[in-house]
Every structure is written in C-alpha cells, then in structure tokens.
Amino acid sequence: MAAPATFWLLSVPADPTKQDTVNKLKDKIASKTNDFSEIFPFALPDFKIGTLDQLVVLSDDLAKLDATFESLAIKLSENLRQLLNDDVNQWKSNLSVNDRSIDQYLRHFQWNSMKYRSDKSLRELTDTITQAFPYDLQEINSIEALTKTKMQNYGQVRTQLQALQRKQTGNLAVRSLNDIVKKEHLVLDSEYLTTLLVAIPRNLEKDWIQTYELLTQMVVPRSSAKIAEDDDCALYTVTLFQRVVDDFSHKARENKFVVRDFKWDEAAMKQEKRQLAEIDASEKELWSTVLRLCKTNFGEVFSCWLHIKALRVYVESVLRYGLPPDFQAMLIRPKPKAEQKARDALNAHYAKLGGSADRKDKKGALQEEQLDENLQLLLGDKDYTPFVFYNINTLIA
Questions:
Q1: Which spans in the chain are helix H?
Q2: Is 222 left (phi over 0), alpha (psi -120 to 50) or beta?
C-alpha cells in the first residue's frame, strides 16, 4: 500500500501582501516549471491574542493537544479498517469529516465560527474545542476506552460466531451434521441396534459398498445408504449391533472410512440453530454500532484536530513574527515523489527568515553570505524550518 498522503500547514510573513505571498510561493513550488505541489490558502480569523506569557503557555498546551488528537484519530482510523476487513476502498469512504473526504475537508477548510467564535480568547477557544465531545476530554482516554470496550465486545461475539460458522463449513468428514441428518435416517430407541454415520472419500465409495458388511460381524446387510455428498466425501449410514460399534469404528479407520461422532438430540440441534441465529444477529448489530461510533468520532476528532492545528499555527506565528499579526497561512500538498524537492524549494525561498538581525546591509536586506549559510543549514537539517511548519498525516493513501 502507498504511503499516506501528506499535507503541510505553514505560515510566513506577508510579502508584502498575503496574496503576493501565495503567488510568489506558487512560482517556486506549484508552477509549470516547478510542479512539486499544490497550494491552498488557509484562512484564519483575527483572534484575540492576549499577553505574551499567555501565548507561551498556550503554545505548550496546543502542542500536547495536537499530539493527543492525532493519536486518537489514528486509532479510530485503525479500528475502522479492522471493522471493514482491510477493504481499503470501504475504509477510505468511511473516513470522512462533515460528509467530505479528508482530502476535500483539508483543501476547503474553513474555521467553524458557529462552534468556535473568534471573539473569544485563544485559551477559551482551545478549551471549547477540547470539550466538543460528549466525553470528558480532560481525560482524553475516555473516548479510546469506550471504543476499545466496544471493539472488545465485538471481537468476542465475532469469535463466537466464527466458531459456530466453522462447524457449518468444511467437508462431511469434519463439519456439523445437524442440518443434514434427519430422524428417518437413523434407528433410534432400539435395545440392540444403532446407526452410525460414516464419511467416505469419494474415491473409496466402491470399496465401502463392497466391504462395509465384512468389516465386523453383526452388521445389518444392505443397511448402508448415502444421505449426502460434497466434493470430497459422501456420507453413508450403516446399521449394526451396539456391541460391535468400537470394533467396527476401528476397522473403518484402517480403511480410511471416517465414523462421525453423532448423537441424535433434537433439543440440542434446535439450540445450536437458535444460538447461531442469535449470535449472527448480535454480531451484525454490534458491527453497525461500533462502525457508527468510530466513524462519527473520527469525523469529530479530525475536525477538532485541524482546528487545534489552526490555533497552533496562529499562536506560533505571532510568537515568531511578532505583532501586529501579518502573515499568510497555507496548506501545501506535495506531489508523489516530489516531497524533498518541495521541501528544499521552501527552505531556499524562505531562508532569509532564519537570518540574524545584526547581519543586514544598509537597506535592511540579509547579507548574501548569511543567506548562503542559512540555506546550507536548512538543506542539511530535515527538521528545522525558518517558518512555522506542521505536518498533517491524512492517515490514508
């Protein structure tokens, strides 16, 4: 399977306007000559900023929440894939946010001002987002614990169902005979006689017909009849005296005839059918419940996660670029096999943002030698960027 698709969320100072910033970057990484990625402006409201100390504390809290929401989104995604038996197409179609695919939700992201009013402080918005569930996200494990419990319940029922279903599968030498054998096939309530059920390999049917009466004494002549068959075996009855059952079974095994362990118990047979039907219905109901729970929670978690990302970009941009806030946030989707080229082009284009204030010329421009040093640093360090930068793993290919 291909690696998960990746989006990058970044922000840079306006140069000189926000639209100019987008256009200049497009020339570097999303043009005909530099076709490394797609760029989507990422609009953010004008938030109430607060004090520098508040931003520093909030920055740390947002980083923790970012990791928490990502972990939970990945877990819910994995649960969905498990429920859908690794059917990738079904899995992708169920990973949706507000009835849109992850890709479409990211490309057309809009801040949800109805749920998260921008006239509230950044701290209040963060608290509102983390309280957007019917669970207490101050103890974030509650969602995962609930989902885990549901998944465990489903797994137990699924195991029971598979065990019962296995009895209904396989050839006549191993599968349950309760839905095949009828009362009229057997000699019941006899003081001396009994009926055995014997699975005969198809290539040995003639041998059975010719020899079953001779395997032991006290076998009722011409008592064998075929009552079922499949690709591998035929199922025959044979009537004999109870006292020779053990000896007959031993001789049958020597001839590769399989005497099935079967007792006519009408109540037990009805119970097995009823149990299979009940567990099958229970499995389907639980599957639907858990699928709906994972799908709904995934959409909510992913939406909250992206709003946390948006707040994080805003806070980090203010801390890095200063006041008043004048920066452009953008979402970038690198094209397959072009991630490194896009990353290098970004670092080269914005290398000046990593410069030192005391090494500028008279016009305030960063000196060329400093730009070269910064560029070498950036191209050699995959983790550092001179701009606010976050990766968004979309979880799917």
A1: 18-29, 52-83, 88-94, 102-107, 122-130, 141-167, 205-211, 245-254, 266-321, 339-349, 368-380
A2: left
Cβ atoms of residues 140 and 72 within 8 Å: yes
CA dist 292 and 285 (Å) reads: 11
- The residues, any chain, with a CB within 8 Å of residue 36's CB and separated by 6 or more, are 29, 30, 334, 335, 338, 341, 342, 345
| CB 252, CB 207: distance < 8 Å | no
String of b and e for 16-29 (b: at least 16 CB within 10 Å)?
A: eebeebbeebeebb
pLDDT tier for residue 366 given thresholds of 50, 70 and 90: very low
pTM of full prediction above 0.85: no
Residue 349, pLDDT above cutoff 70: yes
How high is the mean pLDDT of the chain?
84
In one letter, which amino acid is 377?
Answer: L
Distance CA 194, CA 297 (A): 60
| pLDDT tens per residue, range 58-67 | 999 999 999 9
